[in-house]
Amino acid sequence: MSKILPAVLMAIAIASPPGASAQTPRPVDDARLRNAAKQSNEWLTYGFTPAETRYSPAQQINAANVARLGLAWSYDVGHGGGGQEATPLFSNGTLYGITNWSIAFAVDARTGKEKWRWDPEVNQEKVRPKICCGVVQRGVALYQGLVIAPTIDGRLIALEADTGRPVWESRVSYAQENYTITMAPRIAKGKVIIGVSGSELPVRGFFAAYDALTGKFAWRFYTVPGDPSKPFENPALKAAAETWSGDWWKLGGGGTVWDGMAYDPEADLIYVGTGNGGPWPEQLRKSKGKDNLYICSILAVKPETGELKWYFQPVPGDSWDFDSVQQLLLADLTINGRPRKVLMQANKDGFYYVIDRLTGQFISGIPFARITWAKGLDERTGRPFVNPEAHYATEPIQISPGPGGAHNWAPMSFNAATGLVYIPTSTVSSSNFAVDTEFIWKPNQSNLGVRRGPPPKDGGFAPPPPAKLDPPPAIGPEPPPEGQPRNVLVALDPVAKQIRWQTPGGGSIGGGTLTTAGNLVIQVIPDGHLVAYSADKGEKLLDLETGLHSGMGPPITYELDGKQYIALMGGVGLVVARNVEPGAPAPAATAQTVFPKLMTFELDGKPLP
User: Fold this and answer.
1) Is residue 178 situated within a structural domain?
2) Cβ–Cβ under 8 Å, residues 220 and 191
3) Rounded to two decimals, what is the model's pTM?
4) Which active-site residues does the annotation give?
5) How far is CA 150 from the centre of its chain?
6) Is the peptide bond prior to 422 cis by the omega test (within 30 degrees of 0)?
7) Of 8, 203, 511, 530, which one's alpha carbon is 20 to 30 angstroms from that of 437?
């Protein structure tokens, strides 16, 4: 369902803003997105390119001078309510972003002055209990003079890039049906591709496509099959139903799509990662020993039709919340003397996967963090050899990684010059798992199905019980010595299948990285630090304390008027717990409250306070 708003009658063209050059701004079209890797002055899509490499050819800021980085300007993005997980986009002299409760904005990239701001006025009291994991948004999309912004309550809204006026609005999902939207939309062949969040609630995951200029619905791909007594939506779901049993469709099934996507225009495929099954334990889904397609999978579909071309499932029959929605990164590598077009993922499950992106054939997978859930992977198929002990029952057992994962949503980046991928990693992540023997499925509520203590009063996640069983045997890199940081940045060579270097700082959740032709890796640390390393050797070259402390989003870089900048968002602001009583007053700001900001840095900028 889409609604064309009155502003669509106006021409979709961007007028030059005051103070900008007289040159007519260029719209972001398919050709510019396809050639984004060649342009050092822009950041047009979530991962810099449709291949999601987060590698910029910019090199004015480089390993020799990055220590001179200082603040150019900052912009207050709002009162907050959660972390700033969005990647800002840059085009035609303007930075575009989105913050908590889906408020989109545009800022003059030279000065930080606000150009416009659009608040979709989400019903926070009603939607908050439906949100699994924070009031967050990961970004917007740019296309043909439009800023396409998702809302956490299930809408997709196109705004005029120069004014912020709404052009069209489409309904993707409904919060009343327990769906939310937190991911950044992607553009492929004139369509907006968007997925839904919420596998912990009773939902059936899907992603969908809409015409980018009109918002008209194009197609929807469900990631788990529905009621088998009714016709299946497509042959792929009919095949998937053979990998389920019991009354899974009554529980929802999970498999939501809340992050990873990439697009290969030459192959004409869009790649999508899917989330965990719901409830978590396979036995509560009545599917013990079944693969449960297409949860925890990577899917390749045609952008025009949503037709499935291939799939790869890193975690068949997932019981550990090992979503496979982490960043999907496309690259061309020479492996065993043969050029390969690959898709790569540093999965939550602790394995780094390299897959042929044309066929879905498994190429390699190595542990980049401590793993106890599996003994290894089949060298031919990539299927995991699961440790028997990891199939937990009623006695709590510690499993690694935990639900936070070895790598979560914090973006990695790939530098073709060094041949290294830079992964924010939790090297020793773990959690205690036990099936909830008193589990009763509840509509409109979380249904984890694992034992947990009472929720903390501050609204955080309920802790698991202490472990009573010995953990399964571990594989992967040795953990850091006791007392040493376990959150690190890992530089991994996917061809040699080796970790080349690692350095303390970061972790699987929060912040993220970009890399540049200036031999740099720029990383944002969840504690508020902006850090730069040499891309080849991992030497620390810069460490700035932004003052934002937490809730950090990924960095970008862009060039404007012959000058290179680095920008990021961070800060949490005023947070209301998910389980707050309806109608309760919002928390009051204190002197210690750090409101979210968009910060931009330049060479020889101002020192931070």
Assistant:
1) no
2) no
3) 0.94
4) 321
5) 14
6) no
7) 203
Tell me the pLDDT of the chain averaged across its residues. 93
Asked if 512 and 412 touch (Cβ cutoff 8 Å), the reply is: yes
**H-type alpha helices, 358-498:** none
Question: What is the number of domains present in the chain?
Answer: 1
Dump pLDDT digits (tens) for 421-433: 999 999 999 999 9
Show the tokens assigned to 318: 């997932």
User: Which residue is listed with tokens 């040493």?
Assistant: 484
Q: Which two tokens stand for residue 201?
A: 């609630």
CB-based burial label for 232 (10 Å; 0-12, 13-18, 19+): middle
Give Rg (Cα) of the chain: 23
Quick one: pLDDT band at residue 102, thresholds 50, 70, 90?
very high
User: Is the residue at 375 inside a domain?
Assistant: yes
Task: Identify whether 108 is part of a domain.
Answer: no
- Strand-pair partners of 123: none
Whether 54 contacts 46, CB under 8 Å: no
CA distances from 468 to 227, 370, 386, 465, 530 (A): 38, 20, 20, 9, 40
The reply to whether 424 falls in a domain is: no
User: How far, in Å, CA of 257 to CA of 276, rounded?
Assistant: 9
* Structural domain harbouring 269: 185-408+431-470
CATH number, domain with residue 328: 2.140.10.10
Taking the C-alpha atoms of residue 184 and residue 117, their distance in angstroms, rounded to an integer, is: 18
In angstroms, what CA-CA distances link 243 with 138, 229, 238?
Answer: 32, 16, 10
Distances (CA, A) of 190 to 6, 96, 171, 223, 238: 21, 20, 18, 23, 29
C-alpha to C-alpha distance for 122 and 134, rounded to whole angstroms = 15
The string over 532-563, giving b where at least 16 C-beta atoms fall within 10 Å of a residue's C-beta and e elsewhere, is bbbbbebeebbebebebbebbbbbbbbbbeee
